[in-house]
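Inputs:
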Amino acid sequence: MPKAEEYRNSSITLKEVIITGNEEVSPGVHLISWKREQNFIPGQVVKITIDQSVAPRIYSVCSGNSEAEIRVLFNVKEDGILTPRLSGVIPGMKIWASNPYGSFKDYGNPAWWIATGTGIAPFYSMFRSGISENKTLIHGARYLNQFYFEDELEWALGDKYIRCCSQEQSCNVFPGRVTDYLNEQKSLPTDINYYLCGKALMVVEVRDLLISKGVPYENILAEIYF
Amino acid sequence: MEALFGKTLDELTQVAIELGLPKFTGKQLAEWLYQKDIRLIDEMTNLSKKNRDLLSQHYKFGLVEPTRVQESIDGTKKYLFPTLQNKFIETAMIPDDDRKTVCVSSQVGCKMGCLFCMTAKQGFQGQLSAGEIVNQIRSISERNEVTNIVYMGMGEPFDNLEQVLKSLEILTSEWGFAMSPRRITVSTIGIIPGMLTFLNNSEAHLAVSLHTPFDDERKRLMPVQVAYPIAEVVKEIKSWDFGRQRRVSFEYIVFKGLNDSPKHVTELARLLNGIKCRINLIRFHPIPGTPLEGTDEQTLQLFKDKLNDKGILTTVRASRGQDIYAACGLLSTKELLGKGNSVQFG
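Outputs:
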């Protein structure tokens, strides 16, 4: 009989990879990388862990599908088991990672991408993979320094890149949460797709809000941090 | 102060050893905690007064009383329990002839975000300990009459796997509640690694929330489909030997015009082909702001008949406790989350 640790789906089997980079992109938020050895679809996730005694966690890939490296963006949870150790990895160290898997993918239609915090990762992966035409990206964060990759995204997406900050203010940044921004819109397009990524409560509240504004639930696809 | 209630026999034995008590005190503690109807360490009368005092200096018994009980016109009761993190959970007790089934919560809130579920609307506030899970059975007034337990309350059990497995150990061990695992069902939306670990480490029944066999539809209803597609879940189940007595069932809320068509019957039959299982059809209990509607009674019965014709044992689960929001998918303690505890998401 199969055992969980022998979970046979080969795409989710963990293997050793060698870290090539670890950048603290914002206080307590790290972007780690390792060499890409397989193709993937932007929006897919990987499981990673520091060693096999620590339960792996799932993270969205945060790099383009033709780049040489796979990158992953994560918050360090001070009381966590995995992320404090993961934040300390240096190039040359080994961690365990799965191949990318999952089916949170953009189908190419006009869409709004809505994320909070590190939920930007799958959309940044799509953007870096050349998917950005007809997309509007709405990113929510508590503080201004949590708009990861903002220079690049602002340059490329212009007014299709909307930042919502709940705790600090700045020009060109909407003052409030993502839900506040959506609530202020007189109407929302109902014939496009909406992709959501973030914590469960954000996803549920945004989804309810979109539905209340006439967006069919069939047009909403969500990725939740499990 | 740490609770004794919720510890396994091994842990209780360790407690005894660390306090300098005889090793067999662990077994005595387990009997008092899980097999006798007491609520205080001082009532453990086969321990000396000195040892009871020593235990009380370091530990509390650990039972928590419900703070509210509501009763439905159909006899179902909904209990509200405070948790260690100053949050609240709900537990349903469903009487049915000579059975009394307790539906326990495994988390405060839920991360899974299912479109049809009230618990999802409060987000995730925390994990329950094994003691808090078992307390939901031990601290209700029907505690001595419970015949069945289902892990179908608030939360996804396999997202709190360690504590859920520990609670199952306490419920089914000879030193614990000594319940048959055949009277316990754990329900999941299909977190595959957790499900396999559960199948390996417990003999309790498994229930899987299916709700539609089609990938695109399920993604819209249940975000977990993106990470763990139902086809993969079923593939794993097919490869598992459930033996003669262990059951797997699939939960299926029937939505009008969404998942109640002949093509769903055909695809369900294809998907579940080769699994000895049951499908439980569940009437949808509408929640505020939902775009979904329950199917009508005639379509529900027809859907059931068609599945039975395909050789899949299919039943319609009776809705219970709807008037007190205790029915499937309606449990929530969102209104009790204090403003100071509200969740920030950016």
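Remarks. The first strand of chain A starts at residue 15 and ends at 26. Chain A touches chain B at residues 1-4, 7, 9, 12, 45, 58, 102-104, 116-117, 140-142, 146, 164, 166, 177-178, 198-205, 207-208, 211-212, 216-218, 220-226 (CB under 8 Å).
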